[in-house]
């Protein structure tokens, strides 16, 4: 009885207490006015009461309600940054920088106090009070300080995005927070999310035994009318352009926000729209009569009108031809630059990924009247001379360009932002009234068995479509134009996309988790558990690479995969900020004094599409040739660096068909990797050699072995012509290999330098599928030739020594003085003998 009384007593008492201090903030009056309009301000007291008394809290609210910018300020003012820091994690780099700057500005604090930290970049100081960081950075910090003792509160922002790191963080924090309480040093966790699927957090009893309190921020959302297209055109960029022209020429004032899938598409549309409705610095637009009459719902429907393909559209058509011609002309002027393929949209716009076509990056400002092309670009739509103030927005955009979207457009011009899904929930652009939604997004699609991957443009989820449309209703009633039919919405758009974690290889996560002592990765309290198979495959790959191993437990036979532990090599590998296989190359190359080469090599392998043509002009022999495509990359990087020092980089790249932006990206990566490695790996002091000489024959041989050490699970063996089945066309097998457990043949990339030698044994960086339907085939990219006798040394897990294993005889054959070696998997012909 006493117990129950005590329990009841406990129930009444809040779980945590917090002595509220009030920290004075001197805000700019303008900031104060803007803040007061945000719905979250009305909830400050309720939120802070719940924060003070609880260790977990979920704050859900529409995008733009003020969660990210205001909640850290509430905490700061209540004294949470007095002795320890407030941490805010973001899944996107773009938001990490932008939000730190904004919160610093609103609190009138410098970047020394409201700082950000992301991989390779940051401005954190010892005086930092509020620290914005990418979720990956916090995860790394947990590895060295499991209890996160530097922080009083951790805010996981944009939790609905369900990034891999966010999910892992939530799982870990669900355990760390109670531990901190038990030590009398409480840590609070606030999960912030758009109003999407919070049940994944509240109804997941593995994550939280008791569902945490939820605060919903009701935001002033004005009605948004959704207009579906009658037809779904495959060229959604053209359709987006047409729709935007219609909105701009026919409908009243209000910003336009266009959603497309990637950086290139954004740039393409920005260029096109700028050319059609140029903004001239010398024209006074203030006298322009803008359409301010209230919007008429029938007019607003635009494409539902019977004039769907009327003369106006023809005019648009002409408009586009004109813009195209002008573009062509402009392009001819820039002859020195490599080929541009605007129709190739198949590239990521993800953090850390390079863009394919970027050579025609528009200049900072809008077209000025001194531009020669101006006349050709003048719009033919006479009824409207109002310019569009067109701005791009994507995750890799520089922060200064990013900031432009928050500023009002010049007088008389209409704001038009062309964005990737960054503007869906991470950043809120003021004064948007019209949303044009392509309905598409870019997603990385993996094959869990082969690891082959490709960026695919897929339909957004219905939830995303709702979020995108919602952007139009923040200042008043708005309109969202979906460039696809309602049937597509019903049948092709899934309600939600599965979280990232359930869609991608998790090698680095498995390793990171193992390093944190989470051995049973399969049992981890993930918000949504990934495929068990995938976790096991990652464990297996890491075991093959010697990064994980089964511990030798005396007397007890261990055959439980869950028990795989990190090897000393694995520990070393995990210090490198890359996927384990590349970490392994770097770790081993350090021992061979080849670290600076390997850093350059790995950087080059990280940036896609470096070379745009066959590298025929790259003579190589011996080991340098056998180093294969990575060798070509390495020499391209070295030579480009040399040209760069002489100030001839642009010419050099154009001459050799090298993407200049890629070289710049590689240079940046090299620098960042070098400094990061010097910082994070004990005993390493590596510098960048600006005039990196090509590796000599011996170095190239060692580099081949290093590449093998990292890609050892991705071995291919040439399919002999005698192995080709009767009736099959032998010519088709000229460049064909057996790869691991894959049944079908895999081909050398058509631009692989190894097509010159077609070596017997190779390792490859990546497998992917090309071609449509019947012509679909598997291709390997970035291939290096290896010697089979290296396999037992670098990938012993791949070999059965002695053949067959059950053979009771000694594996060493005295007569021939050889050890028989047999490779596991379907490598075609039987064993191979080691001297
Ligand atoms: P949430 O996190 O709930 O989506 P935010 O805190 O990001 O909302 O945004 C609140 C408001 O602050 C929005 O109206 C947004 O436009 C505004 N805002 C954010 N950053 C800036 C900035 N750099 N300049 C001007 N306004 C900004
Ligand atoms: Mg936010």
UniProtKB/TrEMBL annotation:
**Hydrolase as a keyword?**
yes
Q: Where is the composition biased (Basic residues)?
A: 321-336
Recall the GO molecular function terms of this protein's record. Answer: helicase activity
What does the UniProt keyword field contain? ATP-binding, Coiled coil, Helicase, Hydrolase, Nucleotide-binding
Q: Where is this region: Disordered?
A: 299-379
Q: Where is the Helicase C-terminal domain?
A: 341-517
List the biased-composition ranges (Acidic residues). 300-317, 343-363
**Has keyword Coiled coil?**
yes
* Annotated Helicase ATP-binding domain residues: 48-214
Family label: Belongs to the DEAD box helicase family. DEAH subfamily.
Q: What name appears for this protein in its UniProt entry?
A: Probable ATP-dependent RNA helicase kurz
């Amino acid at each position: 009885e006493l117990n129950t009384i005590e329990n009841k007593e406990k129930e009444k008492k809040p779980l945590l207490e917090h002595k509220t201090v009030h920290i004075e903030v001197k805000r700019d009056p303008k900031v104060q006015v803007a803040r007061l309009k945000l719905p979250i301000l009305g909830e400050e007291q309720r939120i802070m009461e719940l924060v003070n008394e609880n260790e977990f809290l979920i704050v859900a609210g529409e995008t733009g309600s003020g969660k990210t910018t205001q909640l850290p300020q509430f905490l700061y003012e209540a004294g949470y940054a007095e002795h320890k820091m407030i941490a805010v994690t973001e899944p996107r780099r773009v938001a990490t920088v932008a939000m730190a700057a904004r919160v610093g500005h609103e609190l009138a604090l410098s970047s020394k106090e409201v700082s950000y930290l992301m991989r390779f970049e940051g401005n954190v100081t010892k005086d930092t009070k509020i620290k914005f960081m990418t979720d990956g950075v916090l995860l790394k910090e947990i590895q060295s300080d499991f209890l996160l003792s530097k922080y009083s509160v951790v805010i996981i922002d944009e939790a609905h995005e369900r990034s891999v790191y966010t999910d892992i963080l939530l799982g870990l924090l669900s355990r760390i927070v109670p531990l901190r309480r038990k030590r009398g040093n409480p840590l609070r966790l606030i999960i912030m999310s758009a109003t999407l699927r919070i049940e994944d957090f509240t109804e997941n009893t593995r994550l939280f035994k008791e569902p945490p309190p939820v605060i919903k921020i009701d935001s002033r959302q004005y009605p948004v009318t959704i207009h579906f297209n009658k037809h779904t055109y495959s060229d959604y960029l053209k359709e987006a352009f047409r729709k935007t022209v219609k909105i701009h020429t026919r409908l009243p004032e209000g910003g336009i926000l266009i959603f497309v899938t990637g950086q290139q598409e954004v740039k393409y549309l920005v260029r096109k729209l700028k050319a059609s409705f140029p903004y001239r610095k010398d024209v006074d637009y203030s006298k322009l009569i803008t359409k301010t009459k209230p919007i008429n719902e029938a007019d607003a429907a635009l494409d539902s009108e019977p004039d769907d393909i009327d003369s106006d559209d023809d005019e648009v058509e002409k408009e586009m031809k004109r813009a195209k011609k002008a573009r062509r002309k402009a392009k001819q002027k820039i002859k020195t630059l490599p080929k541009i393929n605007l129709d190739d949209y198949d590239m990521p716009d993800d953090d850390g990924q390079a863009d394919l076509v970027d050579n025609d990056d528009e200049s900072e400002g809008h077209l000025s009247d001194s531009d020669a092309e101006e006349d050709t670009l003048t719009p033919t739509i006479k009824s409207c001379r109002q310019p569009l103030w067109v701005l791009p927005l994507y995750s890799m955009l520089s922060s200064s360009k990013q900031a432009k979207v928050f500023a009002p457009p010049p007088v008389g011009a209409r704001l038009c932002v062309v964005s990737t899904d960054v503007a869906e929930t991470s950043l809120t652009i003021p004064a948007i009234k019209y949303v044009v939604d392509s309905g598409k997004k870019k997603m990385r699609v993996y094959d869990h068995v082969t690891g082959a991957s490709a960026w695919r443009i897929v339909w957004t989820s219905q939830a995303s479509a709702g979020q995108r449309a919602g952007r139009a209703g923040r200042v008043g009633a708005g309109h969202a134009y979906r460039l696809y039919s309602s049937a597509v919405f019903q049948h092709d758009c899934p309600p939600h996309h599965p979280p990232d974690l359930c869609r991608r290889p998790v090698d680095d996560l498995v390793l990171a988790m193992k390093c944190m002592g989470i051995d049973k990765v399969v049992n981890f309290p993930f918000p949504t558990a990934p495929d068990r198979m995938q976790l096991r495959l990652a464990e297996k790959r890491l075991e093959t690479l010697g990064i994980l191993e089964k511990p030798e437990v005396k007397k007890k036979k261990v055959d439980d995969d869950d028990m795989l532990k990190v090897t000393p090599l694995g520990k070393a590998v995990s210090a490198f900020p890359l996927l384990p296989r590349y970490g392994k190359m770097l770790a081993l190359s350090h021992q061979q004094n080849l670290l600076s080469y390997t850093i350059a090599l790995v950087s080059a392998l990280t940036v896609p599409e470096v070379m745009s043509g066959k590298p025929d002009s790259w003579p190589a022999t011996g080991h340098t040739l056998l180093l294969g495509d990575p060798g070509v990359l390495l020499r391209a990087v070295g030579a480009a660096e040399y040209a760069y020092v002489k100030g001839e980089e642009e010419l050099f790249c154009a001459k050799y068909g090298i993407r200049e932006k890629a070289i710049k990206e590689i240079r940046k990566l090299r620098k960042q990797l070098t400094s990061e490695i010097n910082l994070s790996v004990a005993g390493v002091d590596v510098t960048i050699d600006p005039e990196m000489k090509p590796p000599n024959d011996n170095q190239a041989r060692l580099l081949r072995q290093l590449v093998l050490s990292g890609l050892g699970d991705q071995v291919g063996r040439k399919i002999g012509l005698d192995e080709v089945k009767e009736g099959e066309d032998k010519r088709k097998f000229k460049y064909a290999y057996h790869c691991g457990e894959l049944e079908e043949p895999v081909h050398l990339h058509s631009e692989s330098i190894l097509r010159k030698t077609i070596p017997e044994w190779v390792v490859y960086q990546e497998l992917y599928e090309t071609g449509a339907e019947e012509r679909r085939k598997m291709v390997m990219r970035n291939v290096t030739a290896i010697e089979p006798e290296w396999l037992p040394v670098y990938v012993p897990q791949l070999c059965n020594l002695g053949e067959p294993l059950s053979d009771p005889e000694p594996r060493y054959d005295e007569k021939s003085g050889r050890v028989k070696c047999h490779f596991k998997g379907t490598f075609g012909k039987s064993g191979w003998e080691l001297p």
